[in-house]
Every structure is written in structure tokens, then in C-alpha cells.
Amino acid sequence: MKSKFLPYYLIAPVTLFLLCFFVYPFLLVASQAFSSGGDGYSFDNFSEILSYWKFPISLKNTLLLAAAVVPVQVALALLMATMVNRMEKGRDMVLYIWTIPLAISDLAAGIIWLAIFEQSGFLNSMMHALGVIDKPMNLLSYQNMGMVFLAIALAEIWRATAIMMVILVAGIGLIPKEYYEAAEVFGASPWKRFTKITLPLLRPSLQTALLLRVILAFEIFAVVAALGGTLFPVLMGQTYEYQFDLLNSGAASAMALVILAISIAFTIVIMRSLRVPKGIQI
Amino acid sequence: MTTKVAVERLTDPRKTGQRVYYTGVFLLCAWVIVPLYFLFLNTVSSAEAVNGFPKSFLPEFNLDSLKFFAGFDGMVSALANSVYVAGITMILSITIGAPAGYALSRFDFKGKELFRALILLTRAFPLPLLALPLAVLFIRIGLDDTIFGLALVHTTLAVPFAVLITFSLFSGIPIELEEAAWTLGCSRFTAFTKVVFPLILPGITASAIFAFVISWNEVFAAAVLTIENRTLTAFLLQNLDTAPMHLKFAGGFILVVPALVFIFAVRKYLFSMWGIANR
């Protein structure tokens, strides 16, 4: 086998696979979204989903959740990564515990937090034990939308901070220790070291982590289904509803394109705002 | 820093700093573990205890909920489907992903950047959404509601990771080792099987496990693409409104257990996998 062609043989299977199951379905979604029952193309599906009364709510809910969850996750992940960085004893143990949620599905995370927030759940039991309440309250109800939001946000923060932390821990590991030693010699406080060394040098990792999380935040679905049910419509849940309950795959595809457009818009914003100048990468 | 005053001023806040630090680590560990403990409590409680109030914070080790779960119509086959789908996903994504990872780490070829862009692009897309058109396509080619069809979609999710992870693994093995094997009479292929493969095997296993977990946890595509042959996640999602509480918790627990084992198995690789897969 000539080694000139070898790399192409090696990448051929993946490339073919992704063409069939990534590029092609993407084109299919696009054409389905613009189809109008007959042969022509139109914006009918889009005007249908955009004028549906649930659309503004689900858009607002999805964006609000992302806005509430992602910043907390960045802060928590940064905190965990810096904590673990200076840890000597028990580092492996702590890292294992902190990465556990990484492998837990969003559905399972939703169910876990349901155990806490449901009517006879652990939060009510705790409040009862403390004497705050006499009988269990229905926390996840229409009267308590703030609580529904909080439960979903907490479940998301609990579940998905780990992936950010892993990326940031890997990124911090690449920063040369000498920088910190030098800073310490010159008397920089821990906070100064964090803002002047860790943060700027962590920019590539931060960018990756943010991108991954923000895109996944717009796909939020199962956590909401487990905790909020129909109380708390989100974009992905609406897509599912169109496909299954309303059997309208044109509208479902249009929803998919809307989610895609939002994801791409945010991807570009994040790439721009956290751009890593070439040459200063470590 | 040698004067007494300066030393005193330094040591005291440092001690409180230490205390704050350890408390923080402890609290963050508790933040992860306590919700898991609650799920465990509910799983090993009888239905009455799960729905009772107030709840006990100690386990009663009653296996009724789990037995009910095992006896629930369709649950065992859903569990089996989940394992099959994840198994096929794992095998597929490694067999087609690892060669590409090797190519990226060892060769410079025209179109390499384009290929990398394709791989990275997949991560910027809400991939489960692609299940929507595939649901229609699969009906046409007879793959609808099959385990294999779903595994194909899950492979799309897992294969970019497999490529990037194996790329970073292969990059960690010096090419000199292979070159030495060539000069000692190995062909490109035997050098790979005799030298590189044994070194890479643990890492490959780790990334295979990662692919398994991605598939095992996926909810949306599974719910869209399977109707009769539900996976565990799809089955639980479908029954969220109607299932009794203790069934949900037992199902959630069964979903979580393999995840715990898997993360423990791959913990050594988790960070090196991401360190380079990052770029």
C-alpha cells in the first residue's frame, strides 16, 4: 500500500459516515422545514411555529435557563479547577467525585432532582424536620413557577458543570508552573495570580468549554421533561411535541432549524469575544 | 518577609484560608454526592416509603421498587435495547474513528484541515435533531424502529469524540517507536499491531467506554427513532407522566449505576483525553 494514499483510506470511513448521517440529514431537515406539503418551497412551517402561542414562552424559557445556568457553571468549574490544581492529597478521589455527573444522563439528573423537589420529596421532608412547614407543599406546580425554574436550573448546574471542569482542569494543567512561581516571587496575591495568569492563559479551554455548554444548553430537554413536564415549555420540548403529539414533521424541522440558528449565532459570538490570537497559544 | 510582624500577618489569614479551602472542597463533594444518595434512598425503599411523608434519611434496604421495576411490562427489554444500542455504537465509533485518529496524528495530507473542520463542526450542532429527518428516511429503507438505526445516529454523536480522543492518544506515542520496528523488519501493519496497538489499548478502551456512555444516556434521538423497541431512556421519558414515582426512581437509578462504574474505569484518561481533544 502506498503511504501517499494511506491517510485517505484511513479517514474515508468516518468521512463517508458523516456525509451520510450528518451532512445529508442536515440537508433533509432544511428541505423539510421549507417544504409546504406540495412541491414548492415556502416559509409556511416557520410562520406556523412562530405564531404558535407557546413559541415565545419556550424561547424565553430556553434563553433564560441558559443565561441563569451557564455563568454559574463557568464560575463553579473555574473554582473547582483552581481548587484541584493546588491539591496534593486526595486529588484523584476528589476529581472522581466531581466528575461523576459527567456520565449521568440528563433524564437521570432530572429524576434525581425530582426526588428532592417532588411533593413528598427530600426538600419538603427537610423543611418539615426543621419545623418550617407542617405538611408537604407542592413545589413543582403552576403556582410555583419560580421553584420549577430553580429546580431545573439546579439540576442542570449539578449535571453539566463537570464537563466544563474537566476541560478547564486539563487546560490549567498545561500552564507552566514557573509562571506561578515567578508571580509568587514578585509577591502576587492568589487573586492576582488567578486573574493575571490563570484566566488569560486558560482562554482556549474556556472557549471550548463555553461553546460546548452553551450549545448543549439550548438542547435542554429531558431535565425539563422530568421536572417541569408541560408546565415549562422549552424549544427542544416543542420540537418533540410537533413530531409526536402533533405529527407535524415540517414544523418540527423548522423548530430544529431555529434551534440550529440560535446555536450558530451564539457560537460565532463566543468565538469572536474569546478569540485566541495565534502565536500566544501554549 | 523576615520580620515577625510580617510573618504573623501572613500565617493567620493563611490558616483561615486553608479552612475555607477544605470546607469548600467538602461542600462541593457533598453537592455532587447528596442528590445521588437521595436517589439511592428512594430506590431501596418500598412504594409506601417513596410516597410517604416525611421521608426517612436512612436507607431501609427494601427491594420492592427494584422488583417492581424488573417486572414492569417492557422494562427489561428496554434495558436490553439500551445495552445493544450502546454496544453497537461503541464498536462502530471506534472501528471507524480510530483509523482517522491515527491518520491525523501520523500524516500530513491535503485536506487535513478540511477533515478536522468537519469533525469539529459536528460538535457545534445540536445533533439529536438530525434524528427527525432520519426517522422518515429510515422508514423508507426499513431501518425504522430498529436498534441498528438508532445506533447509527448515536455513532454520529460519538464518533467525533472517538476521532479526537484517539488522535490525542496516538500523538502521545512517539513515531520513533514505529520507525524502529520498521528498521527491524516490521511492515507498517505489523509495526502497528505489535508495537502501537498494545500501547494504545487501554486508551482505546477508555474512549470506547466513553462512546458507550454517550449512547446509553441519549434521550431525544432514542425517543424519536424507536417506538416498539424503546431504549431505557426513551421508555422512561415516555412513561414520565404516568409511571408511579418509585418506578421513575428505580429507572433513574438503573440509568446512573453504569455511569458511575464507567467514570471510575476511565478516570485516568478523562483529563488527558480532554487536554488535547480541546484544541
What is the strand and helix layout of this fold?
The complex is a heterodimer of chains A (about 280) and B (about 280).
Chain A: H1 6-34, H2 44-51, H3 54-85, H4 91-99, H5 106-117, H6 122-129, H7 145-173, H8 177-185, H9 190-201, H10 203-218, H11 222-227, H12 235-244, H13 249-273
Chain B: H1 4-43, H2 47-51, H3 64-71, H4 75-106, H5 112-123, H6 131-141, H7 147-171, H8 175-183, H9 188-217, H10 220-225, H11 232-238, H12 245-277
Helix pairs in contact in B: 1-12, 3-12, 4-7, 4-9, 4-11, 5-7, 7-9, 7-12, 8-9, 9-12
Please, could you describe this protein's structure?
- The complex is a heterodimer of chains A (282) and B (279).
- Helix content of chain A is 73%, strand content 0%.
- By secondary structure, chain A is mainly alpha-helical.
- Chain A has one domain: MetI-like fold (Orthogonal Bundle).
- Chain A is globular and about 75 Å long.
- The two termini of chain A are 37 Å apart.
- The mean pLDDT of chain A is 83.
- By secondary structure, chain B is mostly helical.
- Chain B folds into 2 domains: 4-43; 70-277, Orthogonal Bundle (MetI-like fold).
- Chain B is 78% helix and 0% strand.
- Chain B contains 12 helices and no strands.
- The longest helix of chain B has 40 residues, at 4-43.
- The radius of gyration of chain B is 25 Å and the shape is globular.
- Classes of the chains: A mainly alpha (282), B mainly alpha (279).
- Chains A and B meet through helix 1, helix 3, helix 4, helix 5 and helix 6 of A and helix 1, helix 4, helix 5, helix 6 and helix 7 of B.
How far apart the termini of chain A lie comes to 37 Å
Low-pLDDT runs of 5+ residues of chain B are: none
What is the CATH architecture term of the largest domain in chain B?
Answer: Orthogonal Bundle
Helix and strand string of chain B, N-terminal first? Answer: HHHHHHHHHHHH
Helical proportion of chain A?
over 70%
Task: Please tell me how large the radius of gyration of chain A is.
Answer: 23 Å
The oligomeric status of these chains comes to heterodimer
Spatial extent as radius of gyration of chain B: 25 Å
The biggest chain-chain interface is: A-B, 93 and 91 residues
Task: Please tally the helical runs of chain A, counting DSSP H or I stretches of 4 or more residues.
Answer: 13
What structural class do helix, strand and pairing data of chain B support? mainly alpha
- Overall pLDDT level of chain B: 82
Strand content of chain A: under 5%
Q: Class of chain A, according to the CATH hierarchy? A: Mainly Alpha
Task: Provide the helix percentage of chain B.
Answer: over 70%
Main CATH class of the largest domain in chain B: Mainly Alpha
What percentage of amino acids of chain B are in beta strands?
under 5%
Shape of chain A: globular
CATH topology of chain A: MetI-like fold
